[in-house]
Amino acid sequence: MPIVEIHMMEGRPVEVKARLVEEVTRAVADTLNVKPEQVRIILHEMDPHHYAIGGTLWADRG
Amino acid sequence: MPIVEIHMMEGRPVEVKARLVEEVTRAVADTLNVKPEQVRIILHEMDPHHYAIGGTLWADRG
Amino acid sequence: MPIVEIHMMEGRPVEVKARLVEEVTRAVADTLNVKPEQVRIILHEMDPHHYAIGGTLWADRG
Amino acid sequence: MPIVEIHMMEGRPVEVKARLVEEVTRAVADTLNVKPEQVRIILHEMDPHHYAIGGTLWADRG
Amino acid sequence: MPIVEIHMMEGRPVEVKARLVEEVTRAVADTLNVKPEQVRIILHEMDPHHYAIGGTLWADRG
Amino acid sequence: MPIVEIHMMEGRPVEVKARLVEEVTRAVADTLNVKPEQVRIILHEMDPHHYAIGGTLWADRG
């Protein structure tokens, strides 16, 4: 505890994911006053055909 | 807000997914009285080996 | 299958929730070509202090 | 109802997943006093680059 | 890892929840060959007005 | 997009939650190179009887 889930578009390089989990862990640990080791993060990558806003698939939005 | 997640078996064509998000967005927007643009939908596709009912994997159910 | 989760602000009356699940079930069943009885829906109601856009809690947005 | 989601590292063989859902269904059905057929399980497999503890990706932890 | 989420109807006594997490942890640890301490479980309790099958709220099903 | 879910123990004051969403939004926006307004965060607060590690409820761990 805490456990973080991040839903994001697929396609970012691993280095970006590594920085993302590092920065989000720091933000969570600092504000909730827990040790970084207590913070777990799950990344859910999404295909542009699996996300929609306003009834239109992300892949079909200009 | 609102954010909808739909867990479904993999394998449907993109056209079906496009109609799905369109119809679900309309249903949510109409009943919750929000604008369609406020509705976000995430589709989680599942492999038949990653879903089970009654202790049996979907892939193994006749 | 399919299983739908809807994250929404708290406070709507039960009648609205009843219409929501009815309409969303119809939309999912019709487009994915499954029986309505196969569709399960979970509603996650949120306190305005538990949702944020752009780094600001919903409760604090004008 | 109940609906179980299991987030786990990718790579286990199907036989292990079959035993997993069988055993978890039994544990849930027995303790919650419901029929096994009422228990649904979704497996979310994760790439080691999509899980982090303490700000470090699982793939990068020794 | 692994992380388990269990969506269940509200109202069970704490003793039942304690046995549930104990049994599910054993099932997961044994079949996935991980230590019990590695298994985390989140229980999501639901109000009968927040779950639906076939377009009808659980609370309204006879 | 992106959408973040944070599962955390209940009981923190609103000010802590406000700082949490502000800092996590900054971390996500900076590393994924998106605008803060694109980042949505859902907080899931948990009762100590609804989280377990190693088969023991958080409430029962010394």
Automatic annotation (TrEMBL), chains A, B, C, D, E, F:
Q: Which domain of life is it from?
A: Bacteria
Q: Residue ranges of the 4-oxalocrotonate tautomerase-like domain?
A: 2-60
Q: Which residues form the active site?
A: P2
Q: Which UniProt keywords apply?
A: Isomerase
EC category name: isomerase
E.C. no = 5.3.2.-
A GO term for molecular function? isomerase activity
Q: Any keyword Isomerase?
A: yes
**InterPro entries noted in UniProt:** 4-OT, 4-OT-like_dom, Tautomerase/MIF_sf
Q: Which Pfam families match?
A: Tautomerase (PF01361)
Task: Tell whether RNA-binding is among the UniProt keywords.
Answer: no
Q: Which family does it belong to?
A: Belongs to the 4-oxalocrotonate tautomerase family.
Query: What name goes with this protein?
Result: Tautomerase
